[in-house]
Amino acid sequence: MLSLEMEASRLVKSTYVKQGLQSLQQRKKLLQNLLIHKNLPPVGLDDAVIEFILSELASMDSNNFSSNSGVGEREGRVFSSLVARRHYYFSHGIGRSGDIAEVQPKAAGSSIMYKLTRELVGHALHISGFSPALIKDVPLVLPLATGMSLSLCLIALKNQHPEAEYVIWPRIDQKSCFKSIQTAGLKPLVVENKLSTEDGSMRTDVSAVRALMEFHGNRVLCVLSTTSCFAPRQPDLVDEIAKLCQDFNVGHVINNAYGVQCPIIVKLINRAVAVGRVDAIVQSTDKNFMVPVGGAIVTSPASTGFLKELSALYPGRASAAPIMDIFVTLLSMGEEGYKGLLDTRLKLLESFKARLTDFATSHGEVVLASPSNSISIGISLRTLDALQENQGETNSVNRTTFFGSMLFQRNISGCRVVSKSTKVTTINNCTFIGWGSHSNVYPTSYFTAACSIGLTAGEIDTFLSRLEKSFAKVIV
Ligand SMILES: *Cc1c(COP(=O)(O)O)cnc(C)c1O
Asked: Residue 328 and residue 64: Cα distance in Å, rounded?
């Protein structure tokens, strides 16, 4: 360093050189801190610093060694400079053929990035409230979205219990959840949700889960429960399910697709881990951390050794792209930025819910009871059901469907309109009535809207104004 300063001072005034080198030193220090503490930086790093960190790491991969002469079949060669730049000159991916978490000898930089990413994700989960028991085993970040990651977890469990073939599945009407069971070569045992006679809210039928365990004995591999879901379904009672799984020696995988942002769900999961059996918890990277689709995070209580088995199951290397997305994002958010996003969501949730309640009341509708679901909000569409019935309209001019398409045409995305229906839907040879409503017998049509991380007050304003206009049109 000293000689660099001397040499540079021959070209440029030495005080300027000193200052410049100090700044360079500072950047190196940030990378050093990252390697030492393996935590989100207290405040987000700016893009130039992040690019510096990526460039330092990429320089440690053999494809970027200036003297490298690769004579193997996988040398990280990249034809297009656009592609090379898109990946910040990383090209070896992650893992080795035998284990996705193993260090790749040709790619020290990529391997460091992967390990750091897992640590940063662990820290982010800690900030979200995950208990130490759940992050002691550093979370596995998979370059597979939630559904495929769930399948992989189920296959890992199946390897432990080859004789078991059933997965008990409290119904959640999202096809990928259901399909993840069959992709793993297992058979679903569907448990209908229970509707409360008091307030109509929907929750896990725990005694039905228990009855299936009793009936099928050791042919039950696990329960696949779900926390984050569309209202009026509530998060599954994962604590009670965990207790049953412990008592019956049955596995338990929790689909926590977008639950990391929700303190109620995180608390529920912590309790499940404390009181019973949980083998794995799977969460989406895009839905929780605002990155493009492509990854999932698997956490598991340290005592189970499950993550080791899971990473060793992955056949081959994998793309580092979803890993880099989350690495860059967490560095860019920093602790302060991430906490801010979580807080903002909670604040917006209050006002969003209040304004939707106003909307409902002013139109003779109600907010559907779903007390422990604090992400998705459901509003009845009884007015449309009544119009449909009174006017003897057929399903081909279904008002609720029409309402849904009006919103869609007004560039409202993510608002789901669910028609009350007795229609039968078949998915992989299983039939469901009223698919989309989580129930065979849900009594009204409704729509849902979600208050999820990154939503802005402006988007809520726009949504509510277009909602009012569309509703006014659909009831004439
Ligand atoms: C989004 C979602 C999935 C599927 O996730 P992918 O990332 O698309 O595989 C599964 N279950 C629930 C509850 C979800 O919200």
From this structure: 20
